[in-house]
Design goal:
- With 126 residues, this protein is α/β, with parallel strands linked by helices.
- It has one domain (3-111): NAD(P)-binding Rossmann-like Domain (Rossmann fold, 3-Layer(aba) Sandwich).
- Helix content is 37%, strand content 16%.
- It contains six helices and five strands.
- It has a five-stranded parallel beta sheet with strand order 3-2-1-4-5.
- Strand 2, helix 2 (38-42) and strand 3 (46-47) form a beta-alpha-beta unit.
């Protein structure tokens, strides 16, 4: 069974994480507001105290946040996710972000040997 980390438990994230639990995945969750983890913990999720704790044993890391600012804070700012993700882990950003943010994430993870698939819906601008 794949171990998953899910970061960001707003309306979309809570539903997605709940469905992953129902499908039988081992899911570790984290949210800036810890009270949003309670229902998922009751459903079997492991609750992490920080993004780094959430992703340390995950094979796949998923996050769905409110906006570009929140993604940048998680990846490069206070969340320091870019430093916590290890080679071999796959990172999926499910947030609706500006294409430039998505490209910056891809380049940053790739530069550190981490795996974030390039979004196929983006057209490369040369």
């Amino acid at each position: 069974m794949k171990k998953l980390a899910y970061l960001g438990l707003g309306i979309m994230g809570r539903g997605m994480a709940a469905n992953l639990l129902k499908a039988g995945y081992a899911v570790t969750v984290w949210n800036r507001s810890p009270e949003r983890t309670a229902a998922l913990a009751a459903a079997g999720a492991t609750v992490a105290a920080s993004p780094a704790d959430a992703v340390k044993d995950a094979e796949v890391i998923l996050y769905c946040l409110s906006d570009d600012r929140a993604v940048k804070d998680l990846v490069w700012g206070s969340g320091k996710l870019i430093d916590a993700v290890k080679p071999g882990q796959i990172v999926l950003d499910l947030t609706t972000v500006h294409p430039d943010t998505s490209r910056a994430e891809h380049a940053a993870y790739a530069a550190k040997g981490r795996g974030i698939p390039r979004r196929t819906c983006l057209r490369q601008q040369e």
